[in-house]
Amino acid sequence: MEIPTHTKTAKAEFVGSLVAVSVNILAHFLHKQIAEELERRKQQDGLVTFDDMIKGMRDVICAEKNQEHGILTDLLRARFSAVFIDEFQDTDPWQFDIFSNVFGRDATGHVVFYIGDPKQSIYGFRRADLNNYFRASDSAKSKWFMPKNYRSTLRYVAAMNEYFQPAGEGGAFNLFQHEKLTYQPVQAPDTPKWTGGLRHGGNEVDPIRILWCKDAPDILQRTVALVAELLRRPHRTDEGYSWFGTHEHKRVEAGQIGILVRTNREGRRIKERLARRSIP
Fold first, then answer.
1. Confidence grade of residue 1 (pLDDT, cut at 50, 70, 90)
2. CB 89 within 8 A of CB 130
3. Most CB contacts within 10 A, which of 76, 173, 245, 258?
4. How far is Cα 11 from Cα 17, in angstroms, rounded to an integer?
5. 135 CB-side CA count, 13 A
C-alpha cells in the first residue's frame, strides 16, 4: 500500500520541525553551560572583560536609580558637566542604561549630546540596538542635522541624494523601510575641498554605478573584473581610467580602491581572485 504524498510531506515537515526544536534546545543548554564555565574561570583567574566592566557599572547605576544619592552616580555627575556621546547609533542596552540614568534626567542640569546616524549602525553583533537611538531621539529637546558634506565632490553628493531619495517619488520613497529611518538630503560646500572625479576615455564617469548580479559567484566575478578594468593600463593615456580635477590626469591606483564585504570569507575570495591577476 502506497502512502499518500500529502502524508509523506506532513511527516517530513514534522521530522524537520522536531530536529529544529531539538537543535535549539541543545544550543540553549550548551550556551548556558559555556557561559557558566566562562564565568567560573574568569573569577578563578581574576579576569575582567570590557563587557564585565560595562555590565558591572550598569548594575550599580540601576541599583542607585531610586536612591536620593548614589555614590557612583553622584561621582559621575560631579565629574562631567557636559557629555558628548559619539557613534550613538551603536549603543547597546547596558550602555544606554548608564547614560540615561546618570545624565538623561532633566533634574541633573547636564548638557547631553547624542551624536549619531542610525543608517550607519553596524554593530548589531555586539548588541547594538537601534531602539536605544530611537528612544533617545524621541526624548531629545532639540535636534540638529549636518546639512553639508565636506568630504565629497558636488556630483557625488547630488548622486547620493538621488539614490536615497529619487526625485520622481515625490518624497514618499524610503529605502530603509522604517518610519524612523529617513534620509536627510545634504549639500556640498560652496567651495569644496575636492573637485572632479573619474574620467574614462575622455568622458566623465557617473559617481555611482549599480550592477545587477544574479548570484554570489556573479558578484565575485564582476567585482574583480571591475577592479581590473579600473587599473588597466592601455597604450594610449586617454583610453583608461584616470582622475580629473583635484588629481588631474593621475591614474587610478590599487590602494585607492576599497571593497566592502559582508564576511571575511567574501573578502578572502575576492583577494584570491585579484591575486591571480597580480592585483595586490
1. very low
2. yes
3. 76
4. 10
5. 12
